[in-house]
Every structure is written in structure tokens, then in C-alpha cells.
Write a structure and sequence with these properties.
Distance between the termini of chain B: 59 Å
CATH architecture of chain A: 3-Layer(aba) Sandwich
Number of strands of chain B: 17
CATH topology of the largest domain in chain B: Rossmann fold
Helix content of chain A: 25-40%
Shape of chain B: globular
Low-confidence stretches of chain B: none
Bound molecules: flavin-adenine dinucleotide
Helix content of chain B: 25-40%
Number of helices of chain B: 8
Oligomer: heterodimer
Strand order of the largest sheet of chain B: 9-8-7-10-6-1-4-5-11
CATH superfamily of chain A: HUPs
Mean pLDDT of chain A: 97
Structural class of chain B: alpha/beta
Chain lengths: 251, 324
């Protein structure tokens, strides 16, 4: 079986996000970029399936600027077998990304797509579901438990919903999106990095690959949210209760 | 003029309050640009939920009621929504942001080859079309965006849209035909862990009490966080640290990748205030932080900060809140 894992290049979760004064985007100078944490969880799961079942090829893919190759190298260093970079400098919305991934799916014919439930930059949480719809495949979102059944023809998935854990089975191929609790991604090792250098990283221009993928979302302006003022320190439980009752009037 | 379809969310026969906020969005669009909205309730045995929506301001309450829709499975729900959108000529499809809507709406948008915006907090008409504001980067940025195309899918933040007052007239309930046998069948329901009964859901409660890594085990969480919540009739929540430690279930996680809440009052007990946590609660009206570290970032957003040990402060709070 082949598992396709899309990896998005995003500002690291620990960086402080600052909006540019002209509102055109965020400051990227000096910002560290990483693999979107949910995508790293997706890749970790693919690698664990490979370690368990053997006969699995893991393909990582990224769509975007040249620098996305860094995140693909990280994926290869974690243990992915090969990488595909679909080059585009355009700002693509989730629908356009899903179209590109659908084209990649048709080329690669994987048995499973494992991807993050959301990217921590755009926070849209749409791509996997749209991809599944475009391909007419089943989906399971927010997966925190995964088990392959019946010779990998189905997957049993635990899904984290607002009401609690839901379990479903999905016919494969399918698109599964990962939640935080699925696993803890491994660190990249030095031998892993050395091996990654020899693994194939194919670069395809988006215009050749999926020319129709154009964003319908137009960003007019980005702004920082209103600043929340720090309030007062209280010195005791009595003072706190007094303020909540008589000043804020919330209890 | 926009024709809006609001997708209702319900659980165990009860309408989710956030659905009414989504109708608030629809009414806001309607009063700015004209047009009307319908509500769609999907499920099995949804007459009661439909009834509770008849005064929400919709011109009709549509029901897709079929045994095949007993569980909210994305393949079936998205197919039905896509069919209803085509049949009713909707130009905007909206639901309150939740795991339900985030699972299903993008799939329906994909079936209809249309774009979608998540976590919308504002909307205004703009030259025959609309401009939207949405939250991204864990709440560290707000984007003003346009979405091209004749059909738009959206999820909206419930806290950003007021629940409109009920209308006097009652909308008719209209059943849309569903043929369960022809719906896709790729996803099969196995089981669902119910939410622990007794306490309200954090997204619906006026007061939320949340605990962080300071809480050492599940018993202490129940005694301190649960105890204070019960003394206030509040919901409980937690930071990711406690979910990762297995002390609280995932469904309690507040934050960028958990639930987003905006109650009247939020207690952050032994929570440091990482941006990912703040993303889920900083639109609260009044934030109280209790933390033994006077430098904890949570104090920068707290209205009332108390430096102290939660193991001392919280029992005292509970004792002093108890009547008598
Ligand atoms: C991709 C991604 C997504 C994430 N999503 C979320 C999310 O949705 N929600 C979320 O919450 N986090 C999320 N996080 C994690 C987040 O970055 C923080 O790690 C987490 O919020 C920390 O939880 P905490 O504040 O409970 O723990 P800590 O940061 O360890 O803070 C514990 C606090 O308790 C105080 N304390 C300790 N003992 C006591 C005591 N006895 N009395 C009083 N105070 C005490 C300490 O001073 C400290 O400030 C995410 C992270 C990533 C990378």
C-alpha cells in the first residue's frame, strides 16, 4: 500500500505572530518555519503503519514556494520514502489545495491519505474533507485512534468530536485527518537526515500539474486582533469574590 | 439577494444554542442586503428540533429525516446538504463552527465545487457581494476576505453573532425527501462516548472553569475544577496539558485546536496562558486567573489575577461560594 501525507510549511507553533503594518500578511523575517504539527502527526502514523505492516510506501507532498523543500526534507528524515513538491508562488485557498491534492492522488493512487486536521496558520480545517469529496472517498476527521482492518480494506477510526470520542469504520482508500492525541511524532535523527539527502524529491510546476487550481479567496487585509488589557491583581479570595459580585457582577 | 441555508446542529434531541447564533448571522445578512433564510435539520426523529426552530426568523424549517441519518456521518450528511442547496437555490450555507460543521460543511462544499470560509466573525455587504472577517493564526490575526463565486460556505463563531429574539410568526416545517438507500455508504458508525452528564457544555455555559497542568490527577481535577464549577453552575474545561496527560478527555480542551468559548466568566486555574490556549477563551467577558507564577502570561489577559496555589485558593473559593 502507498500512503500519501501532505506536509504544509507553517510558522513554528512557538513563534510570536506579528501582522505587517501594511496589513498584507504576517512578518516572516526571522520567523522559524516548521512542518505543520498535525501533518507531522499524520506522517508519524504512516511511518508506524509501515513499521507494523512492512509493505507500505510513504510519499510526502507539499504545495508552495521553493522553501517547502525544507519541510519535505524533514519528512524524508523522519522516514518517508520520497517527496513531491508542487511549485507555486500563489496563495492557494483550501479548495485550490484540495484540487491539487486530488490531481496528485490520481497520479499516485495511494490506498490512504493521512493529513493534518488543520494548518496552524490558516486554521481553516477544510482541506481533507474537500479532497475526500472531490475524489468521492470516505473520510474520518479529527482521528485520535487508527487501526487498519481486513487487509487494509477498511480503517477503524476514533474521532474527537465536541461531544466525546466517536468510533467509525471507513472504506479505504479514504482521507483521514489527524488530531493531537493520535501519537507523538519522532524527532529527526542525524542518520535520518543523512539518508534523506539520497531520497528522491521531485519538483513539479503547479501550472503543468493542475493549472485549474486557482484560489477563490481574496485577502483584502490582515490585522492584529484588539488588544485585551490586563486587569487588576487581587490579593485574596475574599477580594476576588467581592470584585466578581460587585464590580464585574458576573456571579 | 442572498438565499441563506443555515445547517442546524443538535444532540440527543436538543438544538445546540450555537445554531441560533448562526441564524443571527443570517438575519444580519438579511437586514443588510435583503434576502431570506431557511434552516435545515438533518437526522432521524428530528420533529422536536424542527419545532424549536419555528420562531428563529427562517422562512421555513426544512427537515431531512431518515433512519440513514441517525448519526452525523459526513458522506451522507454532505450529500443531503448538497442536494438541498441545489434544490432550494441557496447562495450561502452557514453553520456555527464546531466539530460537526467542520467535518461536514467542507465536504458538501467540495461536492458543489465551491469555496468556504471558517470561523467568520463579521460580515458586511460590498458592491452586490459580501466581505467577511475571520480569525486565523490561533487568534493572532484577523483577515478581511472576499470569497468569489455564486455559492459560499461558511462556519461562524457563535460568540460573534447575537441570538436574535424569537419571531411572533411560526415558520412552516417542510420535509425534504431523502432516500436513505441511495446515499453514499463509505463511513459506518460504530460507537459514541456520550458527554459526561450533569454539567453543561463549555460552549454553551455562561461560566467556564478550566484547569491546567497545575492539577495533578483526575481526582484533584474533579474536586477542584469540578467542585468550583458545580458551586457556580458552570461548565468545566481544560488546557491541552491535562488532555495529553490523560487527566481530562479531549472534549474538554479549550483552545486553537479544541473548543472556542466566550462565556461571561472564565476561570483559568493553573494555566500558563499559551497562545494556543488563549485562542479558545480570550473573547470571554471576564477572565480570572489563578497561578502561582506572578509572571505567567495568562495574567496579561486576565481581568482579575490572583497569585497563589490552586490547591489552596480553589478549596477556599468553593467553601466561600457554598451557601450557609
Ligand atoms: C499545534 C498545537 C496546538 C495546540 N492546541 C492547544 C489547545 O487547543 N489548547 C491548549 O490549551 N493548548 C494547546 N496547545 C498547547 C499549548 O501550547 C500549551 O502547551 C498548553 O496550553 C499548556 O497547558 P498549561 O497552561 O496547562 O500548562 P503549562 O504551560 O505547563 O502551565 C502550567 C501553569 O500552572 C502554574 N502552576 C503550576 N502549579 C501550580 C499550582 N499549584 N498553583 C497555581 N499555579 C500552578 C504554572 O506556574 C504554569 O503557569 C497546542 C500546542 C500546539 C503545538
Amino acid at each position: 500500500m502507498k500512503i500519501l501525507v501532505p506536509l504544509k510549511r507553517v510558522p513554528d507553533a512557538d513563534t510570536k505572530i506579528r501582522v505587517k503594518p501594511d496589513g498584507s500578511g504576517i512578518e516572516t523575517d526571522g520567523v522559524k518555519f516548521s512542518v505543520n504539527p498535525f501533518d507531522a502527526i499524520a506522517l508519524e502514523e504512516a511511518l508506524r503503519l509501515k513499521e507494523k505492516f512492512g509493505d507500505i510506501e510513504t510519499v510526502v507532498a507539499s504545495i508552495g514556494e521553493e522553501a517547502c523543500a525544507e519541510q519535505l526534507r524533514t519528512g524524508l528524515a523522519m522516514g518517508a520514502d520520497r517527496a513531491v513538491l508542487i511549485r507555486s508562488d500563489a496563495d492557494l485557498d483550501p479548495r485550490a489545495v484540495a484540487q491539487v491534492l486530488a490531481a496528485l492522488f490520481r497520479r499516485e493512487q495511494p490506498g490512504l491519505v493521512l493529513m493534518g486536521k488543520q494548518a496552524i496558520d490558516d486554521d481553516s480545517n477544510q482541506c481533507g474533507q474537500m479532497l475526500a469529496a472531490l475524489l468521492g472517498l470516505g473520510q474520518a476527521t479529527f482521528v485520535s485512534k487508527l487501526e487498519l482492518l481486513d487487509h487494509a480494506s477498511r480503517a477503524r477510526c476514533g474521532r474527537e468530536t465536541d461531544a466525546g470520542l466517536e468510533t467509525v469504520t471507513v472504506t479505504l482508500p479514504a482521507v483521514l485527518t489527524t488530531d493531537l492525541r493520535l501519537n507523538e511524532p519522532r524527532y529527526v535523527s542525524v542518520p535520518g537526515i543523512l539518508k534523506a539527502k539520497k531520497k528522491p524529491l521531485e519538483v513539479l510546476p503547479l501550472t503543468d500539474f493542475c493549472a485549474g487550481a486557482v484560489s477563490r479567496t481574496k485577502l483584502l487585509r490582515l490585522e492584529a486582533p484588539p488588544h485585551r488589557q490586563a486587569g487588576a491583581r487581587v490579593r485574596s479570595v475574599d477580594e476576588l469574590l467581592d470584585k466578581l459580585r460587585h464590580e464585574a457582577k458576573v456571579i | 439577494m442572498p438565499q441563506i441555508l443555515v445547517i442546524a446542529e443538535h444532540d440527543q434531541g436538543q438544538l445546540k444554542a450555537a445554531t441560533l447564533a448562526a441564524t443571527g448571522f443570517a438575519r444580519k445578512v438579511g437586514s443588510a442586503a435583503g434576502g431570506q433564510f431557511e434552516v435545515l435539520v438533518l437526522g432521524h426523529g428530528v420533529a422536536g428540533v424542527a419545532e424549536s426552530l419555528r420562531h428563529c426568523g427562517a422562512v421555513s424549517v426544512l427537515t431531512a429525516d431518515d433512519p440513514a441519518l441517525r448519526h452525523p456521518l459526513a458522506d451522507k450528511f454532505a450529500a443531503v446538504i448538497a442536494g438541498v442547496v441545489r434544490g432550494r437555490g441557496a447562495t450561502m450555507v452557514v453553520a456555527a463552527a464546531s466539530t460537526f460543521s467542520k467535518d461536514i460543511l467542507p465536504r458538501a462544499a467540495g461536492l458543489l465545487d465551491t469555496g468556504m470560509l471558517s470561523d467568520v466573525i463579521d460580515v458586511w455587504p460590498d458592491g452586490g457581494d459580501f466581505t467577511f472577517k475571520r480569525v486565523l493564526f490561533a487568534g493572532n490575526a484577523l483577515a478581511t476576505v472576499k470569497l468569489d463565486g455564486p455559492l459560499k460556505f461558511l462556519t461562524v463563531r457563535a460568540a460573534a453573532f447575537a441570538t436574535p429574539p424569537p419571531t411572533e410568526s411560526a415558520a412552516p416545517v417542510v420535509a425534504v425527501p431523502v432516500d436513505g438507500a441511495t446515499l453514499p455508504n463509505q463511513i459506518e458508525f460504530v460507537a459514541r462516548e456520550g458527554r459526561a452528564a450533569g454539567r453543561p457544555d463549555a460552549t454553551e455555559a455562561p461560566i467556564v472553569v478550566s484547569g491546567g497542568r497545575a492539577i495533578r490527577n483526575a481526582d484533584d481535577f474533579e474536586r477542584l475544577v469540578g467542585g468550583l464549577a458545580d458551586a457556580l453552575g458552570a461548565a468545566v474545561g481544560s488546557s491541552r496539558a491535562l488532555v495529553d496527560a490523560g487527566i481530562t478527555p479531549n472534549s474538554l480542551q479549550i483552545g486553537q485546536t479544541g473548543k472556542v468559548v466566550a462565556p461571561n466568566l472564565y476561570f483559568a486555574l493553573g494555566i500558563s496562558g499559551a497562545i494556543q490556549h488563549l485562542a479558545g477563551m480570550k473573547d470571554t467577558r471576564v477572565i480570572v486567573a489563578v497561578n502561582k507564577d506572578p509572571e505567567a502570561p495568562v495574567f496579561e489577559v486576565a481581568d482579575y489575577g490572583l497569585v497563589g496555589d490552586v490547591y489552596e485558593v480553589v478549596p477556599e473559593l468553593i467553601a466561600k461560594l457554598k451557601p450557609g
